[in-house]
Model the fold of this input.
Amino acid sequence: DQQVKQNSPSLSVQEGRISILNCDYTNSMFDYFLWYKKYPAEGPTFLISISSIKDKNEDGRFTVFLNKSAKHLSLHIVPSQPGDSAVYFCAASAKWRDGNKLVFGAGTILRVKS
Amino acid sequence: SQTIHQWPATLVQPVGSPLSLECTVEGTSNPNLYWYRQAAGRGLQLLFYSVGIGQISSEVPQNLSASRPQDRQFILSSKKLLLSDSGFYLCAWTGYANTEAFFGQGTRLTVV
Done:
């Protein structure tokens, strides 16, 4: 079953505007959420994270919002830049039966047009 | 500082041949280790994770297996590769709190 969902496979945004990437999760056991950025043929790189005890975390142009009641989080990039074009993965972490587990969504391709 | 090494970067193997991908982590102890696969046009699928030596959890039934012979070594294997095993394989590690995962550069596996 897909416990972390990114329902938009792609998003196209004009340079300078806001990019909003969405993520939904189904398991209330997840207690930490992360966003990763990935270029082709490279490993993902960490962007920003948020604990389940918070509803917002900001780091420069990147802000992550968490709505626990809706089991929804989003990543806002303001202003968007052409270099932000990449695949963005949402990930969720939880204590599992025999350790910790980190589950990723399917990813959203962001294209920032100049 | 912590680093993660994954090799080889690319691999072309015939159907039915064995596979061994290796991942090692430096600069940390007792990491949680993960193997992910990204099939063409798809997201990151968790294949295996390990919280300690000899402890392997499998997420999906498949033609692959994993082993952790040492604390900072994680190996992905197959006895006989299938065409469907083609993809981009990523190794990752996290600390106990799972606050951030660090990825290797990945291995592009093409089964022909």
About this structure: The interface with chain B takes residues 6, 32, 34, 36, 41-46, 49, 89, 91, 93, 96, 98-107 of chain A (CB under 8 Å). Chain A has a mean pLDDT of 91.
